[in-house]
Amino acid sequence: MKTLLTSLVLIIIGFAMWISGCKEKTTAPDPIDEPIIQTISPPSKIWAVYVGPSGRLYVGTFTGLYVSSDEGNTWTKSSLPLDSSSMSINCILEISPTVVFAGSGGCAQTVGIMKSTDGGMTFVPSATGITTTCMTSFAYKSLDTLFAGALGAAFRSIDGGSTWTAMNLAVTGWLNVFSLVYFDNGILIAGTSHGLFHSTSNGDTWTLIEQDSHHFYYSIARTTDGTVLAGGNGLFRSSDSGLSWIPVTTNLPSEYALAMATGETGLVFAVGNSRIVRSTDNGVNWTPCDTVASIDLTSIAVSSTGKVFLSGFDRLYWSTNNGTAWHAVTQ
């Protein structure tokens, strides 16, 4: 019981504040303020930043979803199925230029997954079979086969998100699925509160590959050469599609590795609560990036043009030189 209560406390702190209590206070130079991004008003807590295959930029916040088609110069606020002032968006998935999914980040809300067929402008509920509204992550195999992680469960849809069924990861008790990554050959990897799980059957059956009672695996990323990286309280690297893992320690944040993003030619970013590190060789070696004023960093994404977007809990940043310098968007 003591272990369960401790895990629940960590989950609540980690999801609501992204483990802000574990960070080290740092002093950062003042960022360079840029012109205000249109329609991101009033200021809102930012959960996620995501760049879709179309190049559109999405920002999930505590009060809704914002979409930009010009790398953040102008924005439109999405129309969600509920009052957007009470709709928190924690994860986004674009599977075509028109089809976009958004996952709720609020456990007190009434819909977990929403779907757009107009490029993220308007959404309708797409959550039949979803038993939670605390969504954490998405992955997909095709326009029909989708996967979703959540606090307490993981789900799969084989009809384009119309209906969902829970996947059985064969764990007794509560399981949080924080991150998912899908490989073209049917391999699906899940980062969870119980360890790293591996499936070779599109989620039909699972094997627990890596387990450590001290490690929650919050983020998973696949690099351009097929290397898989898993981040939690530490960072781990796999070169065999997730079957075996080795720890990576050099120049990494001492905090939780909450988010990762990959770019071209081996570029990878990993984000802790207040630090960003970069690798240019698919996660073998890492160097620190410039710091930012925010100390509650939540997400990172890389566009096809190489522009990097970083979300702090209170601000959005961008860089055109791979994190050597960051520019803050004023609100």
- DSSP E strands, number: 29
Strand coverage percent? 35-45%
Portion in helices = under 10%
Mean pLDDT: 82
Unreliable residue stretches: 1-43
CATH topology of one domain: Neuraminidase
Architecture of one domain in CATH? 6 Propeller
Order of helices and strands: HEEEEEEEEEEEEEEEEEEEEEEEEEEEEE
Global Rg = 18 Å
The number of helical segments is 1
- Mass-distribution shape: globular
CATH homologous superfamily of one domain? Kelch-type beta propeller
Structural class: mainly beta
CATH class of one domain: Mainly Beta
> How is the biggest beta sheet arranged?
5 strands, mixed
The largest sheet has its strands arranged as 1-29-28-27-26
Notes on the structure:
- It is a single chain.
- The chain has a 5-stranded mixed β-sheet, with no helix packed on it. Strands 2-3-4-5 form a 4-stranded antiparallel β-sheet, with no helix packed on it. A 4-stranded antiparallel β-sheet has the order 6-7-8-9, with no helix packed on it.
- It is built from 1 helix and 29 strands.
- It is globular.
- The model is unreliable at 1-43 (pLDDT under 50).
- The chain has a domain at 167-331: 6 Propeller (Neuraminidase).
- It has one helix at 2-17; strands at residues 32-34, 46-51, 57-61, 64-68, 76-77, 89-94, 100-104, 113-116, 124-125, 135-140, 146-150, 153-157, 165-166, 177-182, 188-192, 196-199, 207-210, 219-222, 228-232, 234-238, 246-248, 259-262, 268-271, 276-279, 287-288, 297-302, 308-312, 316-319, 327-329.
- The protein has 331 residues and is mainly β.
